[in-house]
């Protein structure tokens, strides 16, 4: 409704229709919107998996997540260099989504006894893939737009990137005590009798399996959306 209002009624629109009037820019915006939905889920629920299923402390779960975050900066720089050298951006986006999808697919294999080396490999794939996408999505957005629209385009770009991760209040409100009720169980898992402790950890792993399926679907949608880009050179 906001986009419709901006395109038809306002005299000085914040988001002009020209920003999404071609498939390449539209693809860039959709990719920008979809990526944080998956990325924030991994950042939030990856440590939950380590704490609930590995028995890690909060600090240790952050350390175990380092294979994901330590790959971001180097890959961001290398992706930028490759775009400068080749004057192209579509191959980087396609490769990024493919790697990210492979990393998310690996998350479906996670169980309470999965070796950390396997998990680290999946996190590296996600880190490399997401950094390539983060570094590249604004190129298709700007490629076909007039220079005078750059300011509006980048504002909408920032909006898409920051808006996607938030959960609707009405959804969170359906959980008695909020979603924190699930987290309150984690600190006491280690004190449970062995059989019950194993059962609870398996339950956490199984519940996160649903999340990984959803994230795979969203990542696959991002890869398909990236195929809409019709302009490739800078």
UniProtKB/TrEMBL annotation:
<protein>
    <submittedName>
        <fullName>Uncharacterized protein</fullName>
    </submittedName>
</protein>
<feature type="transmembrane region" description="Helical">
    <location>
        <begin position="132"/>
        <end position="159"/>
    </location>
</feature>
<keyword id="KW-0472">Membrane</keyword>
<dbReference type="GO" id="GO:0005886">
    <property type="term" value="C:plasma membrane"/>
</dbReference>
<feature type="transmembrane region" description="Helical">
    <location>
        <begin position="93"/>
        <end position="112"/>
    </location>
</feature>
<dbReference type="InterPro" id="IPR036259">
    <property type="entry name" value="MFS_trans_sf"/>
</dbReference>
<feature type="transmembrane region" description="Helical">
    <location>
        <begin position="166"/>
        <end position="190"/>
    </location>
</feature>
<dbReference type="GO" id="GO:0022857">
    <property type="term" value="F:transmembrane transporter activity"/>
</dbReference>
<keyword id="KW-0812">Transmembrane</keyword>
<feature type="transmembrane region" description="Helical">
    <location>
        <begin position="210"/>
        <end position="231"/>
    </location>
</feature>
<keyword id="KW-1133">Transmembrane helix</keyword>
